[in-house]
Amino acid sequence: MKFTKLEIHNFRHISEQTIEIGSVMTAIAGQNGTGKSTLLGWISQASDFKLKNKTLLETPFKSKYSEIFRSCPEKDFKNSYNVSIHFEDSLLEESKKMTTRLIETENRYRVDFDGRGTALDFPVIYLGLKRLIPLATEKTINLQDFEMVSADKNQFAKLSKEILYLTREVVEAEFVKSTNKQMFAMKTNDYGHLGNSAGQDNLGQIISSILSFGRLKNELKENYKGGLLLIDEIDATLYAGSQIKLVEKLFGLAKTLNVQIVFTTHSIEILEHLSKKTGEETKINFLKWNNKNAVNEVNPNIELLKNVIRVQTGVAKKIEKIQFICEDIVAEYWSKNLLNGTDLKQKVEVIKGPFPDGTLIQMAISKHPIFKTTNFILDGDARVNHSQRNTPRTVILPGQHKPEKVLFDFIFSLDDDDEFWDNDNNFTHQTCFGNFADKNHKRWFNDESNQRYFGRGNSRLFNRWKKDNKEAADKFISDLLEIIK
């Protein structure tokens, strides 16, 4: 049997939210107070294992409502809360609805399943924050006699050493019972259970829990259907390296033992690690505030998740543009105009020389490492030279001549009633070309009177040419794209 999702219809500040459960591992993350532990508790309440089999710590495979939830007489007693758990059993999708009901005579809540039905008969281990109470603060601590098969002893020691990177330690297990908990502590040649750190304490309980499902599998044999391990604040007391190692080891054991592991965490390291594995087996549920209500996002963008956890704004990624060097400012303006309206506009940066076309070609064919990744844009009059040299990483502007001549010839060919002219201000064919009978293209292009009507960056001039020469403009873009590819 596999749990697939938890639907919160209404519970305190969570309404109509769905928590997706991975077939192997599920992380529930979010800021404090968003309800992470609450969701973990609801998942645990769906099951009530009927058999008498016990964990390695001699506890039942179940959890009680009262051990997880505390109800407020002022806020909770007047409400009835509803959630639904969805699961697959024999490949069939099913669900159970859980509803809280106040038992007034006992002044406590209970959970009803599908009205007055029963919970799922399924083994669950819930590790709450009570496990993190330091042994040093306990009033009574006693060593207990216990039996553990050699395979479990060896695996407990092996996992402890690998996850905590205890490369030089010899580790054994001690069964300890205190006022608030019972656990397997780590014993070495140098210290026993009283010398355990909080991290060793926490890890010992997690390891013994996953190994408990191994024992249950051996006891039930063909009747074993898997299990559910729920861990609140899995990262607590563990440093980053051990957090990642713990998640990796648990993932492998969960697949072997057919156990689903669901945990809450604030660890950016764990979330970043799992974000690379999300899919059917692994899910990340991220709770965040929206108008005082907690809403869930499944498998969120990891950068956004980190920013929300850190309560910081993100840094916009700078787009590294691909640079092309051209001859002069006219070639720069025309190239940029040709790029307008294309996807390459945000990817390409055009830089003007001044370099004559011969120099650009020499740069392109040079073996010098400084030019190995440099791209070039040549004027149309370099087309033949470019073809003969077969210059790499080079694209040619439209036409067979310098840009000024290409544009001179095009504008000169326009009719007197063309849209390019501004008759109201007497910008006509005559005033545009009257002083340039010598056809000095550069002088015509840079003429102050003409420049007033060519537009900012000569955009009006370029756009008029582009309107009648779409094929040539598209060819320039496609050639540029080929170089980028």
Give the helix/strand layout.
Layout: E1 2-11, E2 14-20, E3 25-30, H1 36-45, H2 65-68, E4 82-89, E5 92-103, E6 108-113, E7 124-127, E8 141-143, H3 150-164, E9 172-178, E10 182-187, H4 198-220, E11 227-231, H5 240-257, E12 259-265, H6 268-275, E13 282-290, E14 293-298, H7 302-310, E15 322-326, H8 329-339, E16 348-352, H9 357-365, E17 375-378, H10 383-389, E18 394-396, H11 403-412, H12 429-433, H13 441-446, H14 448-454, H15 459-468, H16 470-484
Parallel strand pairs: 3-12, 3-13, 7-11, 11-12, 15-16, 15-17, 17-18
Antiparallel strand pairs: 1-2, 1-4, 4-5, 5-6, 8-9, 9-10, 13-14
Helix pairs in contact: 3-4, 3-5, 4-5, 6-7, 8-15
What does this structure look like?
The protein is α/β, with parallel strands linked by helices and 485 residues long. It is 34% helix and 23% strand. The protein is built from 16 helices and 18 strands. The strands form four sheets. The protein has a six-stranded mixed beta sheet, with helices on both faces. Strands 2-1-4-5-6 form a five-stranded antiparallel beta sheet, covered by helices on one side. A hairpin with a 2-residue loop joins β13 and β14. The mean pLDDT is 90.
Please state the CA-atom Rg, rounded to the nearest Å: 36 Å
Poorly predicted residue ranges = none
Beta-strand fraction estimate: 15-25%
The largest sheet, given as strand count, sense and whether it forms a barrel, is: 6 strands, mixed
Which range best describes the helical content: under 10%, 10-25%, 25-40%, 40-55%, 55-70% or over 70%?
25-40%
| Spatial strand arrangement across the major sheet | 7-11-12-3-13-14
Number of strands: 18
Could you tell me how far the N terminus lies from the C terminus, measured between alpha carbons in angstroms? 49 Å
> What is the typical, i.e. mean, pLDDT?
90
Total number of helical segments? 16
Which structural category fits the helices and strands? alpha/beta
Shape: elongated
